Amino acid sequence: MGQLSSLHHFLFLLFLFSLCWGQRTNQDTGRPSCNRCDRRLSCDCSRGGFTRVPMVTDRALTLDLSFNNITEVTDVDLTGHEQLRALSLHGNRLVVIDPSAFNSLWSLEELDLSDNQLTALDPRWFSKLGALQQLNLLNNPYSCIGSAPVFDGLVRLRRLAFGGPALREIQRGALSGVSQLEELTVHANNLTRYESGALAYVWPLGRVTLSLHGPFLTDRALASSVLADVSYPETPMVLEDLYLIGNESVKPFYETAKRRVRYITFRNLFISDETIVRLLVVVNGVPVISFIVDNVTLTGEGRWERANWTDHRAVDEFVVRNVVVLDVFKFVSFLQLQFLLQYPRKVSVINSKAFVLPCPTSSLLMNLQYFDLSDNLLTDMTLTETLCNGNGTLKDLRVLNVSGNALKSLSTVSRLVTKLRKLTHLDISRTDYSFMPQSCPWPSTLRHLNISGAKLTTVTPCLPTTLEVLDLSNNDLKDFTVALPSLRELHLSGNKFLRLPPGNLFLNLQALTIQSNTLNMFDRSDLQSYKRLSNLQAGQNKFVCSCDFVAFLQSTIKGDGDVQLTDGEESYVCDSPLYLQGEQVGQVHLSVVVCHRVLFVSVSCGVALFVGVLLCILLWRLHAFWYIKMTWAWLKAKHSSRRRQRLRDDPSSDALLTFDAFVSYSERDATWVENFLVPELEEPSEAGENSMNPRPLQPLTLCLHKRDFLPGQWIVDNIMSAMERSRRTVFILSENFVQSDWCRYELDFSHFWLFDGDAGGDPAILILLEPLSKDDIPKRFCKLRKLMSSTTYLEWPQEEERREEFWRSLRNALRGGEEDD
How many H-runs (helices) and E-runs (strands) does the chain carry? Predict the structure, then answer.
């Protein structure tokens, strides 16, 4: 019974396993797939309309599933992705995440679950994510955080973002388990309850971003508690979405002042003159180094001089970006703000619709070293006023950025900066410069010049020879002919260059960027002209993929040579020929036929000639020419066979048969033919005494090649003609006959003519001058060998008394079997 119970238990477990496996298989079967993975194993499945987590390769390192319609992540959706480093589910409709959904993601370092519909955070989601470094939980409808130790165990977490419009409460255990962070972001615009110390567990804290719109308006004590927990002197603080109107609205900043926070950034700020004055008073004496305001709306008139008694000498950087002044025509001059402007070394007024900074105001910037007026409304005239007509007022200025303004005269800006004796960086990009004069004055200290995004068509010696970095990207340049011996970096992307600029113009150039031009190709000699070039970015051009260019670029991609292509091999794509268009140069494989056409033709012709010669020799050795020749003769014989048969059968055609016999013999046997055969058959003597036939013998007419063949004709034609005009064919067989080339050809053709059943030929008459076996006959004459085995032949007797009988038999054979009387 115990064994039976164990068996039942085993079968039950097996059934459960099969059921679970079947369910898992069914789940996987219904899932869509995503194949948008690159060679770096980064899979971009965003905006694919997926409603479930799609199947991707389990070797993926990053997986982007953002902006889909996924509502649930099951326990098997991400199984097998142990190598995954980054996962984004941002912008879906996630409502449910299985507690074990992420358990297999042991290597996950980045997880983004922001902008979904998660109403609660489950600590079990992150319990196995020991390698997690970055977690984004923003903009989900959970209302409380800290009721459970959500982040407990995430000891490697360095970037954390949580909160959203629905967040109402942050409890003391919110960051339990988090030891240190490089960046903390909390969106709590509607926060109503905060337990003091909830965010104070983290140290060190690299940067903190807080959105506290509601608390600053309605519960400033709560806002003060939050600021108190995250304020550290060296921790930059970013405060977003603040509406500061009235003195009460700045009370929470007493906490930051008390803890002497040195880096403060306001983003999306609405503020009045009164509040600015009060804020300056609150931070009086506090060593605030950096003061940044991004997207600010000013409601007042700029009357802040009431705070001129405060001390802000520690301010080193002042940045204003995207400023809106509600009543710009009432805004007063900054001449009363010397107490603020005399200290900063870095001042930026970016995209604020500023059209001029009067010279008296500029003169207040006595310590200025970095001045950024980019993306404003400056013109050549107002810039002249701002820089005090180039009189060198800003004597310590090192960096000047006036990019994105309506500047048109390059000579004007060069004149204005000539007396800035410490200027090293000048950015005049995205302007309306279309002409470069032949010469321009520049400060001798200038090292970095940016004129990208203008409308320049030519380059002249106006450029300072002291430059080390020059950016001329996105102009209309076609060539570069100015020598800049000190230049280390040159940026020429987005122009119309057909070839690389001459390297001998840049003796110290180390980095060249020339992407998105009209380059067709470049080679090793082009790069060798640059003596010190080590980094090149030349992708996104219209490359002609010739054999030399492909071979050179592929070797360069592999690291051969001193120059490295730092923009990646995927940037180098063929534009022509048409069949390679769109192919990456690094993946192109050109055949030998394409790359070495002359060599290929030469080798092919040589090989063909060699094979032809070899084949001819082989055919000669195998008597193939004879077979071809005899085939042709056979075809001719077939054509004339009926005519020959008619001639033989028609008695009236005897006149056309000129000879009684065609004689084939060897030259070495000519003596016997001439001394015995011809006299005996063509010149017969009267009957002898012993002759039983008293009548004289009728002479026979023989066809001999030496005597009767027409000179100049092909031997086969002579043989065919002789045989057509002869009643019989006589072969004088001997060792000489077999070894003779001439006789062999005659015999070869006669073999074709006489012994082919279709030709209708009569059997030949064979005369053996000496004993000769059929084995002495060439094997290719199989019918002749067979004939010698089956047909009686005449042998030339050595005894003289037997010769009379030999001649009588021969005459009978030639006359078709008639007996002499």
Answer: 22, 34
The residues spanned by each domain of the chain are: 59-305+317-326, 660-682+699-815
Q: Do 188 and 212 meet the contact criterion of CB atoms below 8 Å apart?
A: yes
* DSSP for 347-384, written as a single string: EEEESS------HHHHTT-TT--EEE--SS---HHHHH
Three-state DSSP at 499 gives coil
Q: CB–CB of 658/725 below 8 Å?
A: yes
Task: Tell me the DSSP string of 426-444.
Answer: EE--SS------S-----T
311 close to 285: Cβ distance less than 8 angstroms: yes
Backbone angles phi, psi at 336, to 5 degrees: -85, 5
Q: What is the pLDDT of residues 342-357, one digit of tens each?
A: 999 999 999 999 999 9
The CA distances from residue 259 to 13, 174, 276, 310, 771, in Å, are 63, 23, 20, 18, 135
Does the structural domain 59-305+317-326 have CATH classification 3.40.50.10330? no
pLDDT tops 80 at residue 688: no
Residue 160 has a CB neighbour count (10 Å cut-off) of: 22
Buried b or exposed e, range 696-725, using 16+ CB within 10 angstroms = ebeebebbbbeebbeeeeeebebbbbbbbb
Tell me which amino acid residue 288 is.
Answer: V
Beta bridge partners of 544: 576
Most confident residue range from 160-169, 384-393, 722-731? 160-169
Contact 164, 141 (CB under 8 A): yes
d(CA 606, CA 601): 8
Does residue 755 register a pLDDT over 60? Answer: no
CA distance 294 to 323: 8
For tokens 């015999």, the residue is: 747
Average pLDDT, rounded, for the chain = 86
The count of other CB atoms within 10 Å of the CB of residue 330 is: 11
Residue 562 reports pLDDT greater than 60: yes
E strand spans, 226-338? 237-244, 263-271, 290-298, 317-325
Q: Which ranges of 42-176 does DSSP label H, i.e. alpha helix? A: none
How far is the C-alpha of 423 from the C-alpha of 409, rounded, in Å? 19
Instruction: Please check whether residue 545 is in contact with residue 578, taking contact to mean a CB–CB distance below 8 angstroms.
Output: no
Tell which CATH classification among 3.40.50.10140, 3.40.50.2020, 3.40.50.970, 3.40.50.1820 matches the domain 660-682+699-815. 3.40.50.10140
Q: How far apart are CA 707 and CA 162, in angstroms?
A: 121
